[in-house]
Amino acid sequence: MRFQELVPDGQMVLPFLGRKEKDYNGVFSSVLGAISELLNSMVLEGLVEEEKLDSFNIPCYAPSMEEAEAVINAQGLYDIIHIKMIESNRGNGASLAKRMRSTLEPLIVGHFGAGIVDELFSRFAMNAAEHLVKEKPNVDFLALRLKKKEQT
């Protein structure tokens, strides 16, 4: 879709969750598991409808740099101008909550509405502070700068 929206030689930047390791190690499963637990507690408190929680799914996969390059090259629609792994410092629970909110907020607002976002990520920040001490997850981001190839 984005290919059709770009002018010839147009460029775009794509930031998304990524991972340094070739093999998937499940870091995102534990972070997303924490979001799931918090949403469940909000159901028990009557802040979120159970039916909405039951129908919510976060389609999340964090590719390695090699996987992202392979998919883009296989499509043949773009030239990769720049690709970079942005390592997050583990920081504190609040910084992890901000990074996860920047990624997940559109999905959560689209499914549950904007009313729960502040509360959810406030709770996530507190939960993440404890989680960081135990597991030290590293949530990194992949940034790609792509240029539309000339159509032949």
Automatic annotation (TrEMBL):
Any signal peptide, and if so, which residues?
none
Which UniProt keywords are given for this protein, alphabetically ordered?
Magnesium, Metal-binding
Would you say which domain of life the source belongs to? Eukaryota
Pfam families tied to this protein:
Methyltransf_7
Quick check: keyword Metal-binding in the entry?
yes
Please list the GO terms describing molecular function. metal ion binding; methyltransferase activity
UniProt-listed InterPro entries: MeTrfase_7, MeTrfase_capping, SAM-dependent_MTases_sf
The name this protein carries in UniProt is: Uncharacterized protein
